[in-house]
Amino acid sequence: MAYWVGLTGGIGSGKSQVAAAFADAGVPVIDADVISRGLTADNGKALPEIRKQFGAGVFDQEGRLNRAQLRDLVFRRPEAKQQLEALMFPLILSEIKTQQQKYAQAVYGVIDIPLLIERPEFMALISRVAVVDTSEQNQIDRVRRRSSLEDTEIRRIMASQASRKERLLVADDVLPNNGTVQALVDKVGRLHRYYQARFLYLSRVNP
Ligand code: ADP
């Protein structure tokens, strides 16, 4: 059985960069965001339930999910956000478990889950939490450079996520990301060597 590390961090912290560095080192990486998008893509498994609960109004003429419409609805009505999450999370959990089974032979793997801290049900899937941490100003600057989001929109997303302090309280390992990308990649390399040794040892004493 592979051990799993839950990788998390606020928007713009550098989580995707870290996930890519683990993948480059040959570590299996499961991405909860990719799973979530797949569930709501054309013919996605979440679509029938979304249509049932939110109606045809959040679909276009061709039957595709109108993401902007759904995002707007969820932004305006907090109870709709809860309803959507209650619908999505069991499907995401189940898909993660299916993917985990494919890597049963690996020493360990990484699950990239932005909402790990906010949703305790994900904790059951992992044996360790790694947090990518950077200053809030860095988060805003990096997201602004990466996308067309306004500062107020970035701050709104940050306010809806766990705080840095909450994340750090749950972290087993912290990857500070206040320097260069290369410095971050080097840190991932060191953590990877530690994980390999640790999880190999654990799998031997706990076969
Ligand atoms: P997240 O997945 O946590 O939202 P990303 O890994 O996508 O964050 O990083 C956000 C943006 O900041 C990306 O464009 C990424 O290339 C850039 N970035 C990440 N780390 C650094 C760094 N140390 N220095 C400069 N840019 C960075």
Please, could you describe this protein's structure?
It is found in: Cytoplasm. Catalyzes the phosphorylation of the 3'-hydroxyl group of dephosphocoenzyme A to form coenzyme A. The protein is built from nine helices and five strands. The chain is α/β, with parallel strands linked by helices and 207 residues long. It is globular. The site of adenosine-5'-diphosphate has 15 residues, from helix 1, helix 6 and helix 9.
Task: Show the helix and strand layout.
Layout: E1 3-8, H1 15-24, E2 29-31, H2 32-40, H3 47-54, H4 67-76, H5 78-102, E3 108-112, E4 128-133, H6 136-146, H7 151-160, H8 164-170, E5 173-176, H9 181-205
Parallel strand pairs: 1-3, 1-4, 2-3, 4-5
The structure holds adenosine-5'-diphosphate.
Adenosine-5'-diphosphate binds at residues 9, 11-17, 142, 146, 177, 179-181, 184.
Keywords: ATP-binding, Coenzyme A biosynthesis, Cytoplasm, Kinase, Nucleotide-binding, Transferase
GO molecular function, one term: dephospho-CoA kinase activity
Binding site for ATP: 12-17
Number of helices: 9
**Largest beta-sheet characterization:** 5 strands, parallel
CATH homologous superfamily classification of the largest domain: P-loop containing nucleotide triphosphate hydrolases
Uncertain stretches of 5 or more adjacent residues: none
- Would you give the CATH topology of the largest domain? Rossmann fold
Helix fraction by DSSP (H/I, runs of at least 4): 55-70%
Characterize the overall form: globular
Cα(first) to Cα(last) distance is 8 Å
The total count of strands amounts to: 5
Give the CATH class of the largest domain: Alpha Beta
Average pLDDT works out at 93
Order of helices and strands: EHEHHHHEEHHHEH
SS strand fraction: 5-15%
GO molecular function, one term: dephospho-CoA kinase activity
Function: Catalyzes the phosphorylation of the 3'-hydroxyl group of dephosphocoenzyme A to form coenzyme A.
EC number: 2.7.1.24
Pfam family, one: CoaE
